[in-house]
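Both lines are given unchanged directly below:

***
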Amino acid sequence: MALRLAFLLTLLATNLIFGQQNPSSTEKKKLNTILSNENISIDGELNEAIWQKTEVATNFIMFEPDNGKPIAENKKSDVKIIYDNEAIYIGAMLNDNEPNKIMKEITQRDDDGSSDFFGISLNGYNDGQQEFRFYVTAAGVQLDCNSNSQTGEDFSWDAIWESKTKITDKGWIVEMKIPYSALRFSKENIQIWGINFLRQIRRDRQLYTWTHIDNKKGSFEQQAGELYGIENIKTPTRLFFFPYASVYVSNDKKNGTKTELKGGLDIKYGINDAFTLDAILVPDFGQTALDNQILNLGPFEQQFNENRPFFTEGTDLFNKGDLFYSRRIGGKPSLRRSRLNQEKETNETIYEYPTKVNLLNALKISGRTKGGLGIGFLNAITEKTESTLLDTLSQTKRKVIIEPIANFSILTLDQRFNKNSSVSLVNTNVTRNGHFKDANVTALVWDLNTTKNTFNLSGDFKYSNVNEYKKLEDRKGYNTSLNFAETSGKIRFNVGAKYVSKKYDNNDLGINFQTNYSSIFGNINYRMLKPSENLNAFRVNGNVYTEYENITGKLQSFNLNTNYHFTTKKNNGFGVGFNSKPVNTYDFYSPGREGRYVTIPKNYGIWTYYSSNYNKKLAIDINPYYTEYFEGNRKEYGISFGPRYRLNNKISFRLNYDFNKQNSDRGQVDYQGEEIIYAQRDVNSSTLGLSTKYALNNKMTININSRYYWSYVQNDKFFSLQPNGELSDSNYTNSLNQDFNTWNIDCSYSWWIAPGSQLNMLYRNTSSNGLSEIQYINKNASHNFNSLFGDKLQHTFSISLRYFLDYNRVKSWI
């Protein structure tokens, strides 16, 4: 009840303070479309008679670098739209006086590479907040994303649509068919949509839009034009099936060769024109990208990217409030190996311990009403997972549940208003069967903008409740923040504050590293809105951040930094930044014990980068950095180096090398009773990656990606942590040196055999020496690399076919 009241009061206050007028007083461009009764062939020709009868959108304006400059007459762009009861159709004639210079690198889907492109942004609610964008490169490669002013473009979203391009002696032509199933709009007889068109001329690094996007004002979405003329459409049933079949063959020295067959079905159903249900009945994520593991010496877990399409596509509603970390679903078991070791009998050993929990099924429902209320619901169920314990005396085994059947759910209510503001109510819930912990988190999130998009007020209030579990007591806590920012003009600023209570915990379905602190922060920046004589772009930022531990009031962080970014007339980018922590701070996390902390000495650092123009066949990224501590010989430095070479429009190579050295670093390594042991150590880490792409055409690509990672820690001296946070000499004798090597290579072939249907073939081999504590470290790089091969290699070969079936087409077949 209290949350509901807060939700309503926030809405009322917002309307009183921020007004209810349209956020843009500038008259919008308008485009009319007409109904087509012809059969439109997507062939890049635009030769149907209906194309000659509809209105033209023209007079494009440069968005960047020279914002507001009209497009040249010899680059004139004309776009037309027609529609029927199945889809809307876009025809674009993109003139170019030098068609032989049109850039058209062939890439994978959702990667524009070094190519010209044309795109359309559509907002079926015309509310200035979220758009669906569809791009086609001059090579015919499709890109699609959803975009909003808070999170930007999300290319993990994929729709099913058609396109065709054709290079002519006058430029190039794009023809697109976007089914209504790929869009969201209200059920109205007369539709008015937000719309904009985009064109990139890659060789000049220029981006144009049909309606002028003023970079002094608010977001891209709020300055769209309007599409009129769609009336009385009778959209077909939106029911799609995605059956799949996969075969996996794996081999390693220990387990020999195994073959596994999988099959399943995903379903997408349009409940109406605004709401969609997605369900995976039998998951198969065997071909997702590998996690890039590192040697993690810090007190917090390593955070991994989500590679499973179901949890990346169309999840913008579920990410409100940053409560959702999808890797928790099907992640590590609740009963960790370390706790299981404490609870097993004295004569028992862990014989088998699964490192992840299998997902049984999942569904999500999302959409938005005519009144701007977005509703999102996601639910997933994971299976019971058991560990096997072996009695070393009797040689008998027993099973122990380390994760019961669990249900994960998220509910989001997101109300948009004034075409530029929103208030959201989010709830996440994890319910586990039996005597395992349950968790619930609720958040109120607001993002409010003035009518002219000049100022923003954003923030949140989150409340968590984790129930009693074994020896852990109930935990109830909260997390709240408030930010105020100027969002227009050359000079902009942001100030904010945050408070997190000690018992706030959203880690059952989210991820949060720190609690029990309060912070105050600010930023001011200047940006050049028009190119100068020597630069296309320039920006300078100044930032300050302070953080205090709530109980003692001690300073956990105090950081001052400034950074500068430049883009030259030749579209080379470079920048430099300076960091300073001018006072000692206190780390309450690495000691790993309640109320204990270690002093972090003041330090300063510098970094710089250079990124050459990717239009060139050979381009280079380089980023060196250096940090000096006011403590003995303690320092950190490193470099990232990434050359890339495009042999032609089909073949390209990219090398990445990262090196990091921490000299005389200090970190917690062990406990001796109540004594906390720290080590002075040298940490060396290197990562070498090579990616190769060969595109047979815009539907078939071959990719080879490899990564070798090596990190080692050599401890020089040991200390005992004192109650005042200082370190004193210790007689600790274990070496605890660590060495970690890992290797993987993925060779994949991908073929889009039809819209929505894909054949994938993957060969993968991986190897790791595991994390080991050793007395002496072999620093010979070739020896460590070669040690990963032979018996340690694991091989996997898989073929997967996923086919798209439209219910309407299947019905016509029958």
The helical segments are 2-18, 337-343, 781-786, 807-813. The CA atoms of residues 502 and 516 lie 4 Å apart. The mean pLDDT is 90.
